[in-house]
Amino acid sequence: MNDPPLLLHVFPSFAVGGAQVRFAALANRYGTRWRHAVVALDGEAGCAARLLHDVRFELLPAPTPRGAGFARRIMGIRRMLRRLRPALLVTSNWGSIEWAIARLALPGLPHLHLEDGFGPEERARQLPRRVLTRRLALRFSQVAVPSLTLGRIARDIWRLPEARVRYIPNGVDLARFNPPIARGVLDFGGDGPVIGTAAALRPEKNMGRLLRAFALLQESGDAARLLILGDGPERPRLEALAANLGIARRVHFQGHVSEPAAMYRAMDLFCLSSDTEQMPFALLEAMASGLAVASTDVGDVAAMLPRESRAHVVPPDDAALAGALRCLVRDPTLRRGLGQANRARAERDFDQETMFETHAALMQALIRR
Domains in the chain: how many in total? Predict the structure, then answer.
C-alpha cells in the first residue's frame, strides 16, 4: 500500500498560536489522508500536543543552525527539500520566507504560502525590503490569506497575480464553543461582570491598553473583573502594570489553557485590545460562545462582527476602549442581544468545516498539479 502524500510545513514557531492551531485542527480532521513533517525554526513545538494519535506527524530540526549565513541557509533548505521530496511545501508568514526563496530552484515542487498577519514592526506600514522579497519569492506560489485586508495587501502592495491569492476565512468549532445555559462562576477579585480576553502575551496584543482601560472603568465606579487567558514574554511586565494601576485584585492571569471553551462560557463579555490583527481566532471563539465584544478597530474585526456590534469597535486608544467596555458592563440586556447576534453570525459565516474543506481542496489541487 502506498504511503499518503507528505506535506512539509515550515513555521517560524510551532508554539500554540492561530496558524498553528488551524494546522493541528486541519490535520486532525483529515487524519491519515496526508503525512506531515513540521520544521519549527525556533525549536518551539508546543502545538504538537494538539495532534491526535492517528495523525502521521514528524517534527524535524531546521536544516542549518541559527546564525548561519544566508547562502548557507538557502543551500541547507534546498538539500532538505531534495531529500524529503514532499508532495507539497507549506510555509507560514514572513519568518519562513527563505523556504519560498529556496523553492524557486525547484519549480516542480508545489508551494502554498499561508500569510496570517504581521508583527509590530509592520503594524503601521509594509517594510519595502519585505515587500520586494515577497513579490519575488511568491510570484509562482499559491498564497492563502484569512482576511480581506491581507488579500488587498497581497494584490495591491506585493503585486501578486490575482489568481495566486486565495481568501479563506478562518472558522471555529461551533459545537465546542457555544453559549452556556447560564454563565459560569469565577471566584476572584470581587463582583461585577467578567471581561475576558485570550491572546499570546506579546507586544502587538497590547494587553497594557486593556489594563489601562480596565483601570479607567474602576475609576468611574463600574464594577467588573478581568480574566486574561494566555501566556508569553509580556506577562511579568503586565502583572507589574496591574499592580501599579491598583487593579491587581480584580485581574486574574489564567495562563495558557489547552481547552479554553469552558473559560469563554464563564465570561460576560470579550475584549480585544491588539495593535495589529487580521482575522483573530479568539474573536471567532468569543462570537461562537455568544459573547458581546469590545475591540480595537484592526484587521477584519469590524467586518467579522454583525452590524449591531460594530459600535463597540473603536480606535486603538485607552479611553475609547474603556468607553466601549463601559456600555457593555452597564447593560446586561445589551450584552445578551449582541452576544446572540455574534453567535448567529458565526453560525452563518464561520463554521470551521467550511474552512477545512476549502483548505483541503486547495492542497489536493496543488498536489495533483
Answer: 2
What are φ and ψ of residue 142, in 5° steps?
-95, 130
Average pLDDT over residues 83-112: 97
Counts for the chain of helices (H) and strands (E), in that order: 13, 13
Has residue 186 been placed in a domain? no
Does residue 87 sit in the same domain as residue 129? Answer: yes
Burial 160-173 (b: 16+ CB within 10 A, else e): beeebbbebbbbbe
Residues 11, 114: Cα–Cα separation, whole Å: 10
* Mean pLDDT of the region 74-79: 97
Distance (Å, whole) CA 228 – CA 196: 6
Q: Which amino acid is at 297?
A: D
Whether 180 is covered by a domain: the verdict is: no
Q: What is the CATH number of the domain that holds 129?
A: 3.40.50.2000
**Which cell numbers in the block locate residue 238?**
503586565
CA-nearest of 170, 164, 107 to 134 is: 164
Q: Which amino acid is at 51?
A: L
State the number of CA atoms in the 13 A half-sphere of 141 facing the CB: 31
Which cell goes with 235? Answer: 506577562
Distance CA(255)–CA(32), nearest Å, equals 33
Alpha carbon distance 327, 362 (integer Å): 43
3-state helix, strand and coil shares in percent for the chain, rounded to the nearest 5:
45, 15, 35
The CB-side HSE value for 306 (13 A sphere, CA atoms) comes to 20
**Residue that is written with C-alpha cell 446586561 in the block:** 332
Whether 359 and 336 map to the same domain: the answer is no
Residue pLDDT, tens place only, 291-338: 999 999 998 999 999 999 999 999 999 999 999 999 999 999 999 999
Q: Is the pLDDT of residue 146 over 70?
A: yes
Q: Mark whether 259 and 327 lie in a shared domain.
A: yes
Mean pLDDT of the chain: 94
Per-residue pLDDT tens digits for 128-141 = 999 999 999 999 99
Nearest to 90 by CA among 28, 16, 144, 31: 144
By residue range, what is the domain housing residue 142?
6-171+351-368
